[in-house]
Amino acid sequence: MMKFFDNLPPMDHLRSEKMSFVQLIIPVESAHRSITYLGELGMLQFKDLNDDKSPFQRTFVNQVKRCGEMARKLRFFSDQISKACITSAGRPAMQPDISLEELEVRLAEHEAELLEMNMNNEKLRQASNELLEFKLVLLKAGSFLVSSQNHAVPAERELDENIYSKERDRESLSLLDQETPPEMLNKAGLRFISGIICKSKALRFERMLFRTTRGNMFFNQAPAGEHVMDPVSGEMVEKIIFVVFFSGEQAKTKILKICEAFGANCYPVPEDTSKQRQMTREVSSRLSELEATLDAGIRHRNNALASIGSQLWKWTIMVRKEKAVYDTLNRLNFDVTKKCLVGEGWCPVFAKPQIQDALQRATIDSNSQVGIIFHVMNAIESPPTYFRTNRFTHAFQEIIDAYGVARYQEANPAVYSVITFPFLFAVMFGDWGHGICLLLGSFFLIVREKKFGSQKLGSFMEMAFGGRYVLLLMALFSIYCGLIYNEFFSVPFRIFGESAYKCRDTTCSDARTAGLVKYRDPYAFGVDPRWRGSRSELPFLNSLKMKMSILLGVSQMNLGIILSYFDAKFHGSSLDIRYQFIPQMIFLNSLFGYLSLLILIKWCTGSQADLYHVMIYMFLDPTGDLGENRLFWGQKPLQILLLLLAIVAVPWMLFPKPFILRKLNTERFQGRTYGILGTSEMDLDHEPDSARQRHDDFNFSEVFVHQMIHSIEFVLGAVSNTASYLRLWALSLAHSELSTVFYEKILLLAWGYDNPIIRIAGLTVFAFATAFILLMMETLSAFLHALRLHWVEFMSKFYHGDGYKFRPFSFASLADEEY
Predict the structure, then answer these.
(1) CA–CA distances in Å: residue 288 to residues 41, 239, 382, 792
(2) Rounded distance, CA 107 to CA 82, Å?
(3) What is the pLDDT of residue 507?
(4) pTM greater than 0.85 (yes/no)
(5) What whole-number distance in Å separates Cα of residue 238 and Cα of residue 257?
(6) Closest CA to 597 of 609, 581, 584
(7) DSSP H or E segment with residue 236
(8) Is the torsion defined by CA of 352, 354, 358, 361 positive or negative?
(9) For residue range 243-277, what is the model confidence (pLDDT) as tens digits?
C-alpha cells in the first residue's frame, strides 16, 4: 500500500510558487531609478529593515512629506473640479512629461491662483448677495412706509397667514397687521428698522422682539419672493422681509442686538418714496454689474480647473509613484560609509532573471560606475505564498483566502474548488430554469466585462462582477443538476424520452393513492417525470437526495485526507503519513465509507434493507443476526473487521507520533544520528535554502496535547461532518418545494381565472417571488452553505491556512486607489 502511494506524483504543480530570499546592494545614485523599475515589474516584496524606527526617523522622510503635500493639492483640485461639475478629460499616458520639482512648483502656482480666485469669487458672491437682499428690502419694506392713500393694494396684508398659527389671540394679530403712515410716525416719535431674516427663524425672532420691548413695537413682514443664499451654509434658503417700528434709543439698541444674534441683516430704507426709487435703481445697476463680473470670474475659474483636470490623472499617478518609491526606499538600510542602500525581500524563483535585467537597466540609465549586487540568501522565516491566477481563477482563490492564506507550498484547495464549489451549490439549487436565469446574468457580466472593469461599481454589483465566473459555473452546474432532478421552475419535462410508468387507468385518478405501474425501461436521464404528483414522490426524492448527500460528503472528505498525504509527502514528513493519513483513512472509511458501499449495493440490488438498522447494530450487536438486512455474503465478518479497525485507528492517531518525536528530539541533542524521517514539527536541516522554518524548543506535553486535540477533533468531526453534508439534501428539498408552492399556489391559481387582470397580477407576483426569493435569497443561502462545506468539512482535513500573502512592490495597483 505504501509503495503505491510513494509512486504517486507529488502534485507540486498545484502549490504556490517557489520563493527566494534575496539581498540587493544598490549605489545611492541608482537607488531611485532601480526601485522605480522594480515597481514597474512588480515581482519583489521588500522587507522592512527599519521597523524599529518611526516614520519621522527614516532617511527619506522629507521626500515623503513633499509627495504627501503634492497629493493634498491634487485632492484639493479634484474636489474643486467635482464641485464645479466639470468633466475631466480621459486618462492620458501615465509617463510624466515634467520632473517632480517642476510639478511641485506648478502645483503650488495652481493652488495659489485657485485660492485667490475662490477668495475673490466668494467676496463678489457675498457682495452680490447683500445687494440682492438690499434690493428686496427696498421693494418690500417700502410698502410698509407709504401713506394710506398710496396703499390701495392690500396684497401685502395677506402675508401673515403663513406665519402665525390659528391659536394666537385676536389682539396680537390686529396689532401686528396695522400699517402706520410716516406722518403719524413722525408725530408720535416712532422709528423703524428694516431687514431680512431666514423664514425658519422668523417666529422665534418676533417673539424675542415682543418680549424684549414688552410689546412696545410694531412688526410687519412679507416673503422675499425668491430664494437667497445663506452666507453661513452657502445654500439657497427662503427668507422674509421685516420692518420693526419702535420708540426710543434703548429699544433700538436691543433690537439691533437681537437682529445680530438671529443672523438678520439690517438695511436702511428711506421714508421718502422718490429716494426709495432712486436707491432701488442704483442698487439694481450695481447688482447687474456685479453679477456680470461674477460670471466672468466663474468662467475664468472653470477654464483654469478644466486645464488642471486634463492633467490631473497623470500628475496623480506620478505623485503616487514617487511616494511609493520613497516609502520603499525607507525600508532599506542606508549605509553612509559605503554610499549604498541595502535591501532584502522575497521574489518568485521564475522572476529572478527579470529582476536582474531591471537592475541592470537601472545601472545603465543612471550612469552609475558601480553595478547593483543581487544575490540569494538563506532565510529563517517562512516565505510568503504566491499563486499566479487569471481572471477566471482569481475569484475562487479569493474564496479560499477569505478562510486563510495557504502556507508556503501547501496544497491549494482553490484548484479543486473550481469544480467542487459550484457543483455542491448546484446540488442544493438544482433547477435548470433557475440555472438559465443565473446563466443569463453571468453572461451579461462577462460580455460587459471591459465596461464594468473600468467603472466604480456599488458594493453589491462589485461583488457580483468579481464573482462572474463563479456565477457562470454555478449556473452551468445548476442546469446539469436541474436536468437530473427534472425540474424547470419545479415543472418536469419529458426531454429524454417517455416515462417508464403509467397510471392504472386512463383518468389517473388514483395516481396519488394507489401509485403508478412500471411498464418499460427506466427513464434515460435523471428523475422520471411521472414521479411528480405521485404518492411516493416525496419519500423517493428524500431517500435519493439524502443518500446522494452522504456519498458526496464521504467522497469530498476522502479527497481532503488524500491531499493531506500529498502535503506530507511533499514536505518529507513520513510521520504524518504513517500516523495521521493511514489511520484517518481507515477510521473514516471503516464507518462512513462502509455506509457509502451499502448505499451503492442497495441501489444496485434493489434490496429493502434498513441501513439505519445496519449501522446502529454494527455497534450495539456486531455479532447479531442481520436477518432481512443482509445485503451480501460475508457482511457480518466484514462489519466486525471494520469496527475493530476503526477502534484501533484512534490510538494509532493519538500515541505513536508524540513519542517518536520525543525520541528523535532526544537522539538529536545526544549527538546521535538518526534517519531522514521528518515531520512538520521538526527542524529539518535538509530543507533547501529559504524554505527552512523556525522551530521552538521541543515540548512533549504541548505536542501530546496538540495531537490529542487533533485526534479527538477528527473522530468527532467524522460523524458531525458527514451529518453536515445532509444540508445538501435539506436545501435541495426546500428549494424544490418552495418553487413548487410558487408555481402551484400563485401561477396556476391565477391562471385558473378567466380575468386577464388576475392572470397578469399572478404572473407578476410569481416573477417577483422567483426573482427575489428563489434567484437571490436561495442563491445566497446555497452559496453560504457550499462555502461552509468547503471551509470546514473539506479543508479542515489538510489545510492549515496560516500563511501570508506575497505583496510585491508594484505600480499596477496605484491606478485603482482613491484620490
Answers:
(1) 60, 21, 74, 74
(2) 18
(3) 63
(4) no
(5) 23
(6) 609
(7) strand 236-237
(8) positive
(9) 888 888 888 888 899 998 988 888 888 877 788 88
Burial label, 119 (beta-carbon count in 10 A; 0-12, 13-18, 19+): exposed
Q: Residue 491 pairs with which residues in a beta bridge? A: 488
Q: How far apart are CA 11 and CA 281, in angstroms?
A: 91
Rounded to whole angstroms, how far apart are CA atoms 335 and 759?
83
- Which of these, 352, 385, 377, lies nearest to 688 by C-alpha position? 377
At 272, give phi and psi (nearest 5°). Answer: -75, 135
* Residue 167 CA from chain centroid, whole number: 55
Q: Which of 17, 803, 812, 21 is nearest to 343 (CA)?
A: 21
Query: What pLDDT does residue 512 have?
Result: 58
Residue by residue, what is the 3-state secondary structure of 141-168? HHHHHCCHHHCCCCHHHHHHHHCCCCCC
Which element (helix H / strand E) includes 243? strand 239-246
Angle at which helix 432-447 crosses helix 459-466, to 10 degrees, equals: 100
Q: For the chain, how many residues are written?
A: 819
What DSSP string describes 670-707?
TT----S---TTS--TTS-GGG--------HHHHHHHH
Of 60, 54, 17, 56, the closest CA to residue 35 belongs to 60
223 class by beta-carbon count within 10 Å (0-12 exposed, 13-18 middle, 19+ buried): middle
